[in-house]
Design brief:
The protein is α/β, with parallel strands linked by helices and about 190 residues long. It has one domain: Dihydrofolate Reductase, subunit A, CATH 3.40.430. It is about 20% helix and about 30% strand. It has five helices and eleven strands. The chain has helices spanning about 30-40, 55-60, 95-100, 105-110, 120-130; strands spanning about 5-10, 15-20, 50-55, 70-75, 90, 110-115, 130-140, 150, 155-160, 170-175, 175-185. Strands 1, 3, 4, 5, 6, 7, 9, 10 and 11 form a nine-stranded mixed sheet that branches. A two-stranded antiparallel ribbon has the order 2-8. A hairpin with a 2-residue loop joins strand 10 (about 170-175) and strand 11 (about 175-185). Bound molecules: NADP nicotinamide-adenine-dinucleotide phosphate. NADP nicotinamide-adenine-dinucleotide phosphate binds near residues 11, 18 and 78.
């Protein structure tokens, strides 16, 4: 890992909701594949990407699918002793502790990109950080009942037009339309 940069990836509906009762409010199979593909994508096959998430997001992933495969999983919790994590999961008590761990030489050399995958406070902290680079945001064009929300997208973030890594064509699954959008933080 050369320069530590944080990229966020999220899907939010029209009221900026991201979650309900510990799960996603919708089922969009191809959107989940997009998440998986994007967060796994590496150019150097000897490296892996990191995913950083809050405790509720981690335990919201079905047990058979966590830790997220082919990625180094970091879970944030202020209570690491209270929960059981497989040995390959890195547990950190703060975002700073997580970022410090990533810069330890034995890990730093094995990492390509760092993805912030939610939820609310984890996104917010990353967005406020000087290390924040981009947000890959799926705009779900419908409203769902939610109890977890994406933070306010401030004017620090500008849309990246024609991002070559994603299609901006409107997608549709199960009668739900959505669009992939990219935002970049202006420093
Ligand atoms: N649509 C999407 O893209 C998307 C993405 C991610 C999640 N989600 C959904 O969103 C919901 C979960 O998000 P959420 O916002 O409710 O919770 P969350 O951020 O996943 O988890 C919150 C918990 O994480 C820990 N935490 C967060 N920030 C921390 C920090 N800086 N330092 C130490 N610990 C920290 C705390 O755990 P302790 O209480 O143990 O200290 C906190 O209670 C679920 O419904 C999930 O399915 C959706």
């Amino acid at each position: 890992m050369k320069n530590l940069k944080l990229n966020l990836i999220a899907a939010a509906c029209e009221n900026m909701g991201i979650g309900y009762k510990g799960d996603l409010p919708w089922f969009l199979k191809n959107e989940l594949k997009h998440f998986s593909r994007t967060t796994k994508k590496i150019s150097d096959p000897s490296k892996k990407n990191v995913v950083i998430m809050g405790r509720l997001t981690y335990f919201g992933v079905p047990e058979s699918k966590r830790p997220l495969p082919e990625r180094i999983n970091i879970v944030l919790t202020t209570n690491p002793d209270k929960y059981q994590f497989p040995s390959e999961v890195i547990v950190a008590k703060s975002m700073n502790e997580a970022l410090e761990r990533l810069q330890e030489p034995e890990l730093a050399d094995k990492i390509e990109n760092v993805w912030i995958v939610g939820g609310n406070t984890v996104y917010k902290e990353a967005m406020e950080s000087s290390l924040c680079h981009r947000i890959y945001l799926t705009r779900v064009m419908a409203t769902f009942e939610c109890d977890a929300f994406f933070p306010n997208l401030t004017e620090d973030f500008k849309r990246v037009p024609n991002d070559e890594d994603i299609t901006e064509e409107i997608q549709e699954e199960n009668g739900i339309k959505y669009q992939y959008q990219t935002y970049e933080k202006i420093h």
